[in-house]
Amino acid sequence: MLIKPGRSSGNLIDRRGGRGGRGGRVGLGLGGLGLGGLVVVLIAAFFGLPVDQFLGGGGAATGPVETTPSAPQDEASQVVDAVLASTEDVWGALYRQTGDVYPEPNLVLYEGATPTGCGYGQAATGPFYCPSDQTVYLDLSFFRQLAALGARGDFPLAYVIAHEIGHHVQNVEGLLGRSRSNAMSVQTELQADCLAGVWAHYAQDEGGAVQLDDADIEEGISAAAAVGDDRLQERAGGVVRPESFTHGSSRQRAEAFLAGYQGGDYAVCFR
């Protein structure tokens, strides 16, 4: 994945270090958990179970909370900023084609825990989108966990951001919060994977902030499969229970990403 010099998103808020200015590398810190602990925590989070019992209370953010967007200050935030800017370019152009304006979301980088418009967010729940404040929340340590689950390379970071931006598009279209059932949750997550694929289709444009190649797309498929509900249940040593799925199987997630990527038509994701 090639990051090209270009405009800053202007929508990145860095709260790391309790205020937003401390440097860091993508994926720093495992919180003292081994691979088995990471898998258990991820499964608990993905299935909506309480995770405090696995984390020993978690690490709450301290100090003033940064709410003002700022320019990226380190390599990790520069990569996140470039991907965010790329999603803005892609979705902005797609919305203009229909005569609409794409409302750009914020993205907050944080460590451990942070206040959000949807309650107090914790890194153990993984990256998430809050529709109340139209903001994506991201603790970069998640990507060490993702790598432990089999997602390799640098593109999984972009895939995850694009997936959460997909939830923002769903929110703009009035598609979030319609049902709490597992089946509807799976549909919502697969749709966000599809929308991430749409972004990847257009991110290959050489004029964009992020330039992708075939290897990146393979990494995206791998990342989608790595967080399939069946894969997580298998890694936990349990029986695969499709009726309990909330995000879709590894195959479903990979196929959803490819459906958006191959055609670049986001209408496919809403069928």
Walkthrough of the structure:
With 271 residues, the chain is an alpha/beta fold. It has a four-stranded mixed β-sheet with strand order 2-3-7-6, covered by helices on one side. Strands 1-8 form a two-stranded antiparallel ribbon. It has a two-stranded antiparallel sheet with strand order 4-5. Strand 6 and strand 7 form a beta hairpin. The chain starts with a strand and ends in an 8-residue tail after the last helix. About 16% of the residues have low confidence.
Question: What's the total count of β strands?
Answer: 8
Q: Counting H and I runs of at least 4 residues, what is the number of helices? A: 9
User: What is the radius of gyration computed over CA atoms, rounded to a whole number of angstroms?
Assistant: 17 Å
Instruction: Please report which band the strand proportion falls in: under 5%, 5-15%, 15-25%, 25-35%, 35-45% or over 45%.
Output: 5-15%
Q: Could you name the ranges where pLDDT drops below 50 across 5 or more consecutive residues?
A: 19-62
Secondary-structure element string: EEHHHEEEEEHHHEHHH
Report the major sheet. 4 strands, mixed
Mean pLDDT over all positions: 76
Strand order of the largest sheet: 2-3-7-6
Fraction of residues in H or I helices: 40-55%
The structure class reads alpha/beta
Q: Shape from CA axes? A: globular
Distance between the ends: 30 Å
